[in-house]
Amino acid sequence: MKLEIEKCDGFHDERGDLIQFVTASFLKEKGVEFGQIYLLTFSKKGVVRGNHYHNQSSEVFCLISGSVEVFCEDVDTKERIHNVFTSENGFFYKIFIGPRISHAIRSLSDFAVMVSFSSHQYAAYNDDKLPYILV
């Protein structure tokens, strides 16, 4: 499955943290080009985003605030993965989702924020975004 979850690299000093979310070497290693970086917000507990997959695009997500559960399924093999992430543990994880991996993210908190990367820029009409209900 083209899905990877790993702790983000970063630096810490008395001022706080500098977390490396997406770097040029990370994208090169994955064979992914730069598209855009964006924020996702979840306005209340239970809100679901996603429930789709992309034939070509790759995405990377990192939870900044709140708690979410992430559901993924390989549309070809039907292999499924479910994980819960919370910002309260002090760690930042990046979730790399490759093409043909359906994904849905549900908020477990009253408000959540994720920073996200896509290898393609958002467009209102996107023929690379195909519905695939997981939640």
Overall morphology: globular
Order of neighbouring strands in the sheet with most strands: 1-9-6-11-4
CATH architectural label: Sandwich
Structural class assignment: mainly beta
Number of strands: 12
Largest sheet, strands/sense/barrel:
5 strands, antiparallel
Q: How many structurally independent domains?
A: 1
The ordered string of helix (H) and strand (E) elements is EEEHEEEEEEEEE
| Helix run count | 1
Extract low-pLDDT stretches: none
Q: Average pLDDT value? A: 94
Instruction: Tell me the CATH superfamily.
Output: Jelly Rolls
Quaternary structure classification: single chain
Helix content: under 10%
CATH top level assignment: Mainly Beta
Describe this structure in words.
By secondary structure, this protein is mainly beta. Helix content is 5%, strand content 54%. The protein has one helix at 24-30, and strands spanning 3-7, 9-13, 16-20, 36-42, 48-54, 59-65, 67-74, 80-86, 93-97, 101-107, 112-118, 129-131. It has a 5-stranded antiparallel β-sheet with strand order 1-9-6-11-4, with no helix packed on it. Strands 8-7-10-5-12 form a 5-stranded antiparallel β-sheet, with no helix packed on it. Strands 2-3 form a two-stranded antiparallel sheet.
Short description:
With 135 residues, the chain is mainly beta.
Strand and helix layout:
Blueprint: E1 3-7, E2 9-13, E3 16-20, H1 24-30, E4 36-42, E5 48-54, E6 59-65, E7 67-74, E8 80-86, E9 93-97, E10 101-107, E11 112-118, E12 129-131
Antiparallel strand pairs: 1-9, 2-3, 4-11, 5-10, 5-12, 6-9, 6-11, 7-8, 7-10
